[in-house]
Structure formats: C-alpha cells, structure tokens
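Hi Y.,

Following your request, here is the sequence exactly as I used it, all 289 residues.
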Amino acid sequence: MTQLRIKLQATPVSTILFILYVVLIICGMKFEPWHYMCLLASGMYFFCKWISFAYYPQASAVRFPALYLFGWVGMDPSPFKARQQKKDNSQKKVLLSALANLAFGLLIFRISLYLPSQLWLLQAWLICIGIVMVLHFGSFKALAWLLRCNGFTVEAIMKCPLAAKTAGEFWGGRWNLAFNQLVYPFIFSPCRKRFGPKCAVLCTFFLSGLIHELVISLPAAAGWGLPTVYFLIQGLTMLFEKSGLYQKMNSFFQRVLSLSLIALPAIILFHPPFMKNIIIPFAHAVGII
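Below is the corresponding structure, written out as tokens. Let me know if you'd prefer a different format.
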C-alpha cells in the first residue's frame, strides 16, 4: 500500500513536469541554439531523474533523496537507501584516473584552440571529446569516488567503454550506465515481456534516438532523423551479434566490427549542423576557443 500511495502521489508531479518540459520545448525556440540545447538537456535530465526516483519500487526506503536527486548523476536510487558504515577509501587510483581524464580533456580543449577555422568540424569533434573527458570520465568519476568514500555505493557511469568486445557489452554495461539504469526498468523490461527481446532492443534504441533528436537536431534546427538512424544501427548491431554468422567470426574481427559500427556512424549522430550551430558557438561562449 505504501508503494502504491507513493506512485499515486508521484503521478501528478510527473505530469506537471512533463507539461513544463513541453512548454520549454515550445518557448525555448527563441533562445540561442546552444542555450536551447542546454535547457532541453537539463530539463530532460531532471525529468528522468524524478521518474527514476518517484517510481522506484523502494522509494520510501531512500533515506537521502535530495543527495540522489541533486548530488549524483546516475539513475539508480538504491545506493542512497542507507549510508554504509565502512566507507570505501581504497580506490585512490580511481581519483587519480579521474583527474588524469580531466587533465586530458583540458589538453584536448587547448589543442582545439590552435586549429584553423577552416577545420571547424574537426575542431568541434575535439571539443566534444574534451567535454566527455572533462565531465563523464573526469568530474563524474571523481564524484563517484567522493560518494563512495562517504559510504554510498554508487558506480561510475563510464566503465572503460573501450574495453568492450561487443556492442551489447558497450551499451549495456560500459557506456553511460545512467541511461541504461533508466531505460532497462521502464522501457526494455516491459517491452521484452510484451513483445520479446528483439523488439525490446529495437524499441529501446528507437527511444534513445528520439531523445537525442530532442537535444541535438531540434536545437540545431537540422539533421532530423540522423540520431534515430544511428541508434537503430546500434540496435541492429546488437541483434546481429546474436546471429550465427557473427558467432562464427574470429573474436578479433568480432570486436573490430562491433566497435566500428559504434564509432564510424557517430558522424550522423553528432551531425555537422549540430557541430556548427551548437558546439562551435558554445565553445566560443565558454572560452574553449
């Protein structure tokens, strides 16, 4: 009964937040493109954060909801149900790795500064890589270390993605675990029960494509459909990895093929209009270039 009451109370709030996000989509079109992108991404993040908490089966047991909602980037509330008495101070190398990643990202920013304006697309890609290194591999990893040192058993949202041997391993267990923590219980699992695993994979990646359309193509006002195509390619790649043809390949060629199908089509995910209309102006505004 307690869980049912929490869900009933959460539904009106979720509806209000969704309506506010729709209003943001409509009214935000008058902003500068990169401002609009930041607003859309932030609004979607906090909406998803609320959903992950409000409909968590043990939401009433989460003793540190504010810390989960505003102090951590993951989408799994379970580490915040209790604070472990024995704090994890044994992962100093994790902090050193986070700081090294942060420094590497800043170095990439510095390198991009010296590229001529004619190479703006390469410059934009370097800036994107630098942002991921500074935030996901640097700051967020350091934050995970800090929370673990204070008794919260969170996991870094990036877990050595380059070590992945397949697309399934890359998307399911190494790249941006926050998104995986969100879509598995709310999208993949219900679709799998109703339509089967293959359809669930495609539905999950199709939804991911639509989400990226909102924060990439919409603010860029161009490139419609390309992010969705990219993520459908990823879904089809994961299905192909289950096929007999893929299983017969040498493990080295399996890995090369899978990682190539992840990396090479990324040019249509972060398409040139997004790079030109969003990333380059953002980099100028914050002083990266």
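Residues 1-6 have pLDDT under 50 and may be disordered.

Thanks again,
Q.
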